[in-house]
Amino acid sequence: MRIFDEMERGVTYFYGEGGYLGVEKKILFVSFSIRQTAQLKYIVLYEDKDAFIVMHDVFDVIGSGFKSRGLNL
After folding, report:
1. What is the pLDDT of residues 14-68, one digit of tens each?
2. Cβ-count burial of 30 within 10 angstroms (0-12 exposed, 13-18 middle, 19+ buried)?
3. How many Å from the N-terminal Cα to the C-terminal Cα in the chain?
4. Rounded Cα distance, 14 and 21, in Å
5. Nearest CA among 21, 3, 23, 24 for reference residue 12
6. Residue 45 three-state SS
7. pTM, rounded to two decimals
8. Could you give the CA distance from residue 1 to residue 7 in angstroms, rounded to a whole number?
9. Could you tell me if 32 and 40 are in contact, meaning their C-beta atoms sit under 8 angstroms apart?
10. Cα separation of 24 and 27, whole Å?
């Protein structure tokens, strides 16, 4: 997978169904840094020109490959 190989980011797959046409879909979930935004969009749209992309800004990601912003719970 190019996202893993080129960006060194893991990918989680979800499987869903489109609400309008009822077509089965593979959904990719990727956490990435803001500096990787353009590269991710390029890879996704090169591989699937009809991809539907949603990006959401988050405050903190905890786990391998990310540095926590120091969120204390």
Report:
1. 999 999 999 999 999 999 989 999 999 999 999 999 999 999 998 888 777 777 7
2. middle
3. 35
4. 18
5. 3
6. helix
7. 0.79
8. 10
9. yes
10. 10
